[in-house]
């Protein structure tokens, strides 16, 4: 069984910073792309940033220059450093990973349970 567990959310003032972490655990053979998505009240879930196992990262236009995604493959963990936060960044943030649990099997997408980020004064 594979689990993705996020941490690091919370309440922060506009202009502040937070760092989210997401650790994958369980029966894992390999992890391809990892990423962060967010969903604000009344809105659809949207991509924030993704990082392939090899290759360049991708960011939503709304977070470029403010957020940085990174990963530690040895720890099966993906991070999201969020700087210069704005009230419009308020949302539940979900991590996502494309995981192969066994050689010869397909790659499946797994989601974390989400962590709340609130930007408010």
Draw up the topology in text.
Layout: E1 2-7, E2 10-12, E3 18-26, E4 30-39, E5 46-51, E6 58-59, E7 67-72, E8 77-82, E9 91-100, E10 107-111, E11 115-119
Parallel strand pairs: 2-11
Antiparallel strand pairs: 1-3, 3-8, 4-5, 4-9, 5-6, 7-8, 9-10, 9-11
Give a structural overview.
There is one protein chain. The relative contact order is 0.32. The protein has strands at 2-7, 10-12, 18-26, 30-39, 46-51, 58-59, 67-72, 77-82, 91-100, 107-111, 115-119. With 121 residues, the chain is mainly β. The strands form two sheets. Strands 2, 4, 5, 6, 9, 10 and 11 form a seven-stranded mixed β-sheet that branches.
Work out the radius of gyration: 14 Å
Overall mean confidence score, pLDDT: 96
Shape: elongated
Helix and strand pattern: EEEEEEEEEEE
Helix proportion: under 10%
Number of strands: 11
- Which spans of ≥5 residues are poorly predicted at pLDDT below 50? none
Strand content: over 45%
Largest sheet: 7 strands, mixed
What structural class results from the helix and strand content?
A: mainly beta
> What is the terminal separation in angstroms?
40 Å
Number of helices: 0
Give a concise summary.
The chain is mainly beta. The chain has no helices and 11 strands. Strands 2, 4, 5, 6, 9, 10 and 11 form a 7-stranded mixed sheet that branches. The chain has a 4-stranded antiparallel sheet with strand order 1-3-8-7, with no helix packed on it.
List keywords for this structure.
single chain; 121 residues; mainly beta; seven-stranded mixed beta sheet; four-stranded antiparallel beta sheet; 11 strands; 0% helix; 56% strand
């Amino acid at each position: 069984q594979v689990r993705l567990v996020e941490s690091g959310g919370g309440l922060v003032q506009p202009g502040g910073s937070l760092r989210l972490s997401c650790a994958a655990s369980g029966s894992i053979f390999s992890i391809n792309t990892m990423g962060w998505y967010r969903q604000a009240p009344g809105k659809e879930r949207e991509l924030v940033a993704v990082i392939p196992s090899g290759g360049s990262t991708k960011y939503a236009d709304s977070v470029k220059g403010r957020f940085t995604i990174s990963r530690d493959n040895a720890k099966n963990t993906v991070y999201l450093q969020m700087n210069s936060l704005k009230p419009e960044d308020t949302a539940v943030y979900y991590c996502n990973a494309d995981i192969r649990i066994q050689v010869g099997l397909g790659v499946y997408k797994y989601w974390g349970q989400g962590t709340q980020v609130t930007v408010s004064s």
